[in-house]
């Protein structure tokens, strides 16, 4: 079946509006990266085949936070991290796990089925309560490709600042975290708010 052609911005805009309205309120509703690609299509920068190709190459990401049902010991946290690293390596899941004053903050990234299956297990895990999805959907690349599961302890007020910026419809600008893990989250999920830190040579 040939790919439909859209010869004007008005046609592309109507096509995007129709697709968004059709999927509104469903699991097919476009997420952040998909909305970015649709905006590029609408502007005539990408065609439908290019949008489809980029989505095929995308990495699925879930960013969530939860409360620990019991404060974990250092030994427990190390055991949790080692277990996560072994399991995630088998499923090619990478990400970031942070702990702060009874709260877990985590990003999972990989193939959609694997990431969603792991997240479903986390939501049912008795060690977690009040599991809140911050962001979910495809992204252009792995954010934490060098780690099976990066880990760090972070200060609670700094975690709140990052989550507030990510969730705000109009986040403040010029934020910079001293903690490298939190800075990476800020740059990835609230790029308009973050002051980008230079990468080391």
From TrEMBL:
Looking up SUPFAM superfamilies in the UniProt record yields: Acylphosphatase/BLUF domain-like (SSF54975)
Q: Name all BLUF domain ranges.
A: 59-150
Q: Where are the transmembrane segments?
A: none
Q: To which species is this protein native?
A: Hymenobacter lapidarius
UniProt-listed InterPro entries: Acylphosphatase-like_dom_sf, BLUF_domain
**Highest taxon above the source species:** Bacteria
A GO term, aspect molecular function = blue light photoreceptor activity
Q: What is this protein called?
A: BLUF domain-containing protein
User: Which Pfam family, any one of them, does this sequence belong to?
Assistant: BLUF
């Amino acid at each position: 079946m040939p790919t439909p052609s859209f010869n004007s911005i008005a046609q592309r805009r109507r096509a995007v509006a129709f697709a968004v309205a059709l999927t509104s309120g469903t699991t097919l509703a476009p997420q952040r990266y998909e909305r970015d690609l649709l905006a590029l299509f609408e502007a005539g920068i990408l065609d439908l085949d290019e949008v489809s190709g980029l989505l095929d190459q995308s990495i699925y990401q879930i960013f969530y936070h939860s409360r620990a049902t019991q404060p974990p010991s250092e030994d427990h946290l190390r055991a949790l991290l080692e277990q996560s690293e072994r399991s995630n390596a088998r499923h090619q899941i990478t990400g970031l796990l942070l702990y702060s004053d009874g709260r877990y903050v985590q990003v999972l990234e990989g193939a959609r089925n694997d990431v969603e299956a792991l997240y479903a297990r986390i939501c049912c895990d008795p060690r977690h309560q009040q599991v809140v999805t911050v962001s979910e959907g495809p992204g252009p690349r792995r954010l934490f490709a060098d780690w099976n599961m990066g880990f760090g302890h972070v200060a609670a007020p700094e975690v709140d600042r990052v989550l507030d910026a990510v969730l705000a419809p109009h986040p403040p600008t010029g934020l910079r975290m001293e903690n490298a893990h939190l800075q990476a989250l800020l740059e990835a999920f609230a790029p308009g708010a973050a002051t980008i830190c230079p990468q080391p040579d």
